[in-house]
Amino acid sequence: MHAGLGSDTPTDLLVAVEPSRHRAASRRARRAPRPRPARRPGVLLGALLTGGLAAAFLGFSGPAGAASESTSVLAAQQEMLSAEEQLEVLPQASVTVAEAEARLREVAASRAARAEAAVAAEAAAAAAAEAARPKTVMPVDGARLTSGYGGRWGTFHYGIDLAAPMHTPEYAAADGVVLRAGSASGFGLAVYILHENGDVTVYGHMDKILVEPGDYVDAGETIALLGNRGQSTGPHLHFEVHKGGMNGKRVNPVPWLRERGVDI
Q: Segment Disordered: which positions (predicted)?
């Protein structure tokens, strides 16, 4: 017996009503609303703003209860806006300021250590090169000694002559500063170099000078090209040593060179 139908309801009416109820229930089941997805904060914020405007209008023209509702909506909007700002500003992963500062100090210290190590390595390489560098050299490579220090042709020869082909490089015999470079009586052209111990070496008869007064030269640095200028009988270098300065005693260059490890 179905509720709502009397006991005297005809059987054929019951049969007609029952299928109709089943069809209606089936249609309601198909039209059942689907669950709505949760609104995103941005959408919810828009809805709250819209509601806030409506509530504000009601509060202006309606009763006091509507104004109270508007205030509540605005408070909810502010809370929602604050929550969205926090979500946008704060990243998912972070370190503290102290940790970041410690990392900066660590990188700076590492770079300073590398720079210091590079400077030390460069200084060590320079020291090694300086130690290996010769401090005294022959003024001309492969030259032939054609005239020595001493009496010659009724005069005194105050240097040695080293013969070689024209334009053979001439070298500073030791480290020093160029005192003079240019024309010189008897030599045609000459170069004078002052060394650390105060001695001066003299180079004469060259064809071309490659340094200027005031230049610092290392032992073995090219200062001129060998020639045949001045009072000369052939291409050669006239080499002298003035002990203790320009006007010092002119001594034999052969033992002077030998004392410094160079044999002729």
A: 19-40
Tokens of 90: 């704060």
Residue 33, both tokens = 């609303």
Q: CA-CA distance, 107 to 111, in Å (whole number)?
A: 6
Beta bridge partners of 142: none
Rounded to two decimals, the pTM is 0.60
Whether 264 and 147 have beta carbons less than 8 Å apart is answered as: no
Roughly what angle, to the nearest 10 degrees, separates helices 64-89 and 41-61? Answer: 160
Helix-strand-coil split of the chain, %, nearest 5: 40, 25, 35
Give per-residue pLDDT as tens, 204-219.
999 999 999 999 999 9
Structural contact between residues 80 and 39, judged by C-beta atoms closer than 8 angstroms: no
DSSP letter for each residue of 149-206: SEEETTEEE-SEEEE--TT-EEE-SBSEEEEEEEEETTTEEEEEEEETTS-EEEEES-
Q: What are the residue ranges in the chain where pLDDT is below 70?
A: 1-71, 73, 77, 79-91
Place of tokens 């200028």: 229
Secondary structure (DSSP) of 60-115: HHS-HHHHHHHHHHHHHHHHHHHHHHHHHHS-SS---HHHHHHHHHHHHHHHHHHH
Q: What are phi and psi of 10, to 5 degrees?
A: -65, 150
Residues making up the chain, counted from first to last: 264
CA dihedral 146, 235, 164, 254 (to 10 degrees): 40
